[in-house]
Structure formats: C-alpha cells, structure tokens
Amino acid sequence: MPNSTPITVAIYSDVICPWCYLGKKRLEEGLKLAGVGDAEIAWLPYELNPDMPEDGVERTAYLDGKFGPGKRAEIEARLTDAARQDNLAFNWPGIKRTPNTRKAHILVALAGGQGQGDAAKGALMKAYFEQGRDIGQDEVLVDIAMAHGLSAAELLAAFKDLALNAEIVRLEAQAQEIGVQGVPFFIVNNRFGVSGAQPAAMWAEALPKMLAERAEAV
Fold first, then answer.
1. For residues 43 and 168, what is the distance between their CA atoms, to the nearest angstrom?
2. In this predicted model, what pLDDT tens digit does every residue of 28-44 receive, in sequence order?
3. Mind listing the domains of the chain with CATH numbers?
4. Whole-angstrom Cα distance, residue 112 to residue 146?
5. Torsions phi, psi of 54, nearest 5?
6. What is the dihedral of CA 64, 66, 71, 72, to 10 degrees?
C-alpha cells in the first residue's frame, strides 16, 4: 500500500539540462518503487547560460566552442546510453539551437501556481530533448502553456513582469547561497540535499528513511 506521509521535493534545474531530464525520470521511478504516491514537486530555476542571447545560439557550434567537437560527441554518447536504460531518448540531431531559458522558467513558475509546474516542466524537456523544438521561442512556449491551463495573454504578460523576472534571479542567487554548484539538485522535505541524477534505486532506498525521519520529527 502506498505510503501516505507527504513528502516535498524542491528541484533546482534548467530545462535544457540533459541530466535534469534523466534526474526527473529517475526520481519519478524511485517514488513509485518507494510507494510514495503523494509527493509535492516544486521546480526551482537555475539558468545554465544566464548570459545567453535572447534568441539563443546555434547549438552545435556553441557546444563545440565550449567543450570541443570530440568532447561534445562523447558527452552526447554517454547521455544516450544512460537515457536508454531509463527508457528515454535524446534527439541530438533535432536540437538546432541552445535557447535562453528565462522565459521557460517563468512558464514553469506560472504553471506551478496552478498545480501544473511538474507537468509543464516535463513537457518543456520533452519538447526540447525529444522533439527538437526551440523552447526559447514565444510561440512554442505559448503552445506548451496552453496545454497546461495557461492563456497566451497571461504567459506573454508574465514574460514582461519585472517582479517575476526578479524572483527568478532571486531564486537562482539563493541556489548559490546554499552551495548548489550543479544541477539537478534536490531538496527533500526542506532538509535533505541530493546532488545529481541519482538512480531510481537510490531514491527507493533513501525516501523511506527520509519519510521516517520526518515522522519522528513531527
């Protein structure tokens, strides 16, 4: 019988982080294995490329310049192998641009206010990594937002909301303050920090212990 004790997981990540995509899938599988059916998931922003031009850049040239052509291919091959084990697939040839992700984070924050943050996050990652869609473009973001209960007008207004943009920056600064040096980074029950795309088996073993400690504290 699923464990009914609530558990919260706040996750710092970027929508174009492949390890975050794997980390999401592994956490979901770990929750199932642990019998945790009512986890509250909150996604927190962490822009890997905060200075990216608003329209993004051509992906292959950008990553070849950052890592070198051989290293980029090596990283992609390693991720492909890891994804296969988790029944995910990266469509590297289909991803043409590395986008600026600020607007995508705003979409997730807006959707989160309606209980759709986790679903919107998953849709953005799937659109980017599997469908090769440019999730830095307004029309793509509007399409995803409308599938998760948001209107086009609401989303486009949020992009220009100075307070919401400032909140994204504040949360990213908070990540630095608590020592987050890479993503994904998970915070369970506001107490336990877990770094990296950990295997589902790790979550299945660790989550019951975390729940037990919460129950004892209460």
1. 11
2. 999 999 998 789 999 99
3. 7-48+101-212 (3.40.30.10)
4. 14
5. -60, -35
6. -60
